Predict the 3D structure of the following.
Amino acid sequence: MSDVAPIAVAMSGGVDSSVVAGLLKRQGEPVVGLTMQLWNQRRLPEVASDAATGRCCSLDDVYDARYVAQTLGIPYYVVNFEDRFEQHVVKPFVADYVAGKTPIPCTLCNNFIKFDQFMEMADGIGAEKIATGHYAQIRQDEATGRWQLLRSADATKDQTYFLWGLTQEQLARTMFPLGGMVKSDVRQLAIDLGLPVAEKPDSQEICFVPNGDYAAFIDAYFKEQGITTDVTSGNIVDREGKKLGEHAGVHHFTVGQRRGLNVAVGEPLYVIQTNPATREILVGSGEALMKKRFVVGDINWISLGVPTEPLRAEVRIRNRHQPAMATIYPKADPIGAEVEFDVAQRAVTPGQAAVFYQGEVVVGGGWIEREA
Amino acid sequence: MRAYFDHNATTPVAKSVLEAMLPAYTGVFGNASSIHGYGQEARQLLEKARRQVAGLIGSKAEEVVFTSGGTEANNLALFGLVEAGKSAHFVTSAIEHPAVLNVMEELRGLGYEVTFLPVGEGGVVDPEDVRRALRPNTRVVSLMAINNEIGSLQPVAEVASIARAAGVFVHCDAVQAPGRMKLDVREFGVDLLSLSGHKLNGPKGVGALFVKKGVPLRKRTFGGHHEKDRRPGTENVAGAVGLGAACEAVQVMDGALRDRLEAGLLARIPDAFVNGDRVRRAPNVTNLRFPGIEGESLVIALDMKGFAVSSGSACSSGSVEPSHVLLALGLSPADARSAIRFSLGISNTVEEVDALIAAVAESVARLRKLSPVYV
């Protein structure tokens, strides 16, 4: 082992993290590649993806990551995080859905696995910094000394919506070498670096639900754990409480969803709210989905300490949402806020994150708890 | 320094073995089943190798069937005794290698009965448990000679005598045995015994199954009539020659270096514990746990210093799952994950052992300092 601390690169087998490893290696940095084995794809065969598509956590991806590491001539290891992933990501994901929320497992994974346990693993092999293929930027504010998270140069790839939970300590040790690039440049770099994954398609879905059917995953997971899902079935009702139909479980529904309701009343109906206590799915018109004010909890204030005064920021309430101007009313204990959009936004969904932006800077983010 | 302490995973091919194999890749290329001189030359090499294997295990040459390795030998032994249309019960231990455990799982999935016997904290099967497990339709008892992870010696002879008295066939997975203990199929009293070339300084991709004369083994792959109609496929002459040469050269190690390693680690590292029985144990292996660390991290840290050791058993991705063997000893999953297997071979030196002790002590101390659970 050389005396210079290596950089631990989290390699998924995809183009982005492969280019990160290649770039750092080309810059002369000592690099160690690590792939986290997060989920055993053979566990729930009924929701396994088409083998040809080869998504994250699959053996094909481990094969690709290892091939890239060999091509680059860097040390490479696969580390087993399956237990931790199930504990910190899969179980909360399932519990949230059953509680009528729409969770974001990627954020949980970032908070508890990639930038926590993975960093510990990096410590163990003597690495001071970790690098990932995320599209986001990190910089230190010279005036305050605080580490800041910024949107990526490629607006279409920006992943800050999933990274708002990073602490100052984590940001200080993390490198996002792709944050200043656009995807087409990254693909070109993969070709220039001679990486065998240059043509590989991007993954789109949550890694452990490769076919994208979360409800089927939860059903299969319950079955494996010997839990019956009948406990979450109930009625579909309108605002007046009138029963319009029945459903097989609250975890089949997310706010704003239109498909799969199987009730016809003439006008298009959307899920407005899921109520796990009564197991009722409240449906209504698209108009009823528009909300201005909601409560956010567990906020991580990144670019500044906990603010005492209301502040103005653009707020994003799901990954594909165009951030909209809002006023944020912070609360200190427990750390949270009420957010009020200038203009009502569609489908404010408990379990999703609200991320606050001032220009390119991520001011902070937290979990959407409920309407205010 | 670069040093290898993972000989239970595989061993390097001995120089004498390689030299013995080369003619079978160069001049002697015939098909050992051919009638002509080319074939006869190959046949001679093959049969000499068969006698060498028989010499190691105290069997007759014709009782040795060459296979592609230990896994195939185990599959052939267990599936080969299944009778069409008849129920059957199999008995094995909870600490077998996956090459037996997963054969048993497959048999169970096909509707056969399987009993997995527990072990105590020493990792040794109690022969009385075998006696109690036997049923009228018990067909085979399969027990390893030496556990690959902790090195515990199993009471194969006692178990075999109990099973034989009940008219039950006995299979022994002995791939870890050559070089670690004296091996004699008659003293063991077994009907079937599996060997693997690469565990005894022979080549990979070759193994053997001892099939006692008279055992009604049926082939499980289909083709020609090779290996006395027990295992079809053109004979891997070079591999067999390598296995034979390795069997002839192998000598039982003493435990001096392992003892030095174990004593050094226990002296230098607080809260370090040996897993499994320390007396009834192969002389080349020690399995230790270091509570508070992840064995996987220690394996990587040591690899980066040039030392090859292992933890748990490799799963399909190449990462590590908590060892089913250590869980069977009664360890908690966290303790099982903190364990490391050190397995020595004939080429290890005192200098390597001392350097390894220092490297492990340094790495464990560092990992524990980082650990949120170790105080």
